[in-house]
Amino acid sequence: MAWFFGIDTSNYRTSAALFDSESRRWHNAGRLLEVPEGRIGLRQSDALFQHVQHLPERILELEAGFGAQVAAIAASTRPRAVEGSYMPCFLAGAGTARSMAHAQGVPFYTVSHQQGHLAAAALSADALALLYQPFLAWHLSGGTTELLYVRPDGPLFSADIVGGTDDLAAGQLIDRAGSLLGLSFPAGAQLELLADACTAREKPFRPKVNDCRFSLSGAQNKIERLHQSGAPRETVARYAIDIVGSAVMEATRQAVQRWQLPVLCAGGVMANRRLQQRMRDAFGARFAEPALSGDNAVGVAVLAAMLHGALHGEQR
After folding, report:
1. Is the CA virtual torsion 275, 278, 282, 286 positive or negative?
2. The dihedral sign for the CA sequence 47, 51, 53, 58
3. pLDDT tier, 37 (very low <50, low <70, confident <90, very high otherwise)
4. Mean residue pLDDT across the chain
5. Are the beta carbons of 253 and 198 closer than 8 angstroms?
6. What is the distance between the alpha carbons of residues 68 and 71, in angstroms, rounded to a whole number?
7. Can you give the pLDDT at residue 99?
8. pTM of the prediction?
9. Is 128 helix (H, G, I), strand (E, B) or coil?
């Protein structure tokens, strides 16, 4: 058994995780950050403070004494693995992980939050081999709507943005629609339940997609007008989800037509079952299970194993 430990402190969730590179077993301990009622998201200073409060408890949820078995530790230290990518909330996890690695005398690795998402999705979909070859990936979350061209790059992989939104993120649109309907933040799962009860579907609005890119700001206005017209809450919820699905489907179609590569989907918005079914049917897309769709530290622990050379059987 070779355990690897990961920490992820995003703007939505505090997470700590263990990953066994031999059995591929994992254990993630995470909790959402607390957002005051009526607000959508947190200031970075508030998120950082909550991580400092919550991270020790998340680590205590893991098996006692695991440190003696850990071969390496990693933390997400920035949103994307590109120059200039930075968010203060990641400082909480990075500092804790670095200190733990020093105390244990084991290697400490830094990765990006986005790389962690992709690794978690690949593990969950039983597709770790994808991380050693070019593929297309969606990172669709509360703050990110990016279609990525992913390829091996050094010990890990790089991800270039080739499509996605030019303004509002899909998760932001979903959360704003949820707030309009009186749902708590984050609203994705609740909005999906409402949409499932829809019996009077509104004619869908399809954002224009050019070269895999689209805008969602106009969609927000459409959703607000539909709500103001007195449409049932279920209809508004279905309408909002269908807008996101339409844009993602068309951008994926354009990308697959250009690159002819497999598609992996990560991020909390991609946990939507209706969108998953459409993507599977059209493109054979692969997804993480719900526990690993949203923010988690399992992918970070997987990347620690990759950087440590402990994953076997995946060929470049």
Report:
1. positive
2. positive
3. confident
4. 93
5. no
6. 9
7. 97
8. 0.92
9. helix
Q: Which stretches does DSSP call E strand in the chain?
A: 3-9, 13-20, 26-32, 70-78, 108-112, 135-140, 145-153, 156-165, 213-214, 263-266, 286-287
DSSP line for 187-230: -HHHHHHHHHT-SSPPPPP----BTTEE--HHHHHHHHHHHHTT
Which is it for strands 145-153 and 135-140: parallel, antiparallel or unpaired? antiparallel
Assign 61 to helix, strand or coil: helix
**Helix (H) or strand (E) segment spanning residue 316:** none
pLDDT in tens, 67-113: 889 999 999 999 999 999 999 999 999 999 999 999 999 999 999 99
158 Cβ contact list (under 8 Å, min separation 6): 81, 150, 151
Q: How far is the C-alpha of 129 from the C-alpha of 276, rounded, in Å? A: 21
Q: Which long-range contacts (CB under 8 A, 24 or more apart) does 85-88 make?
A: 85/112, 87/11, 87/44, 88/44, 88/45, 88/47, 88/48
Tell me the C-alpha distance between 286 and 276, whole Å: 8
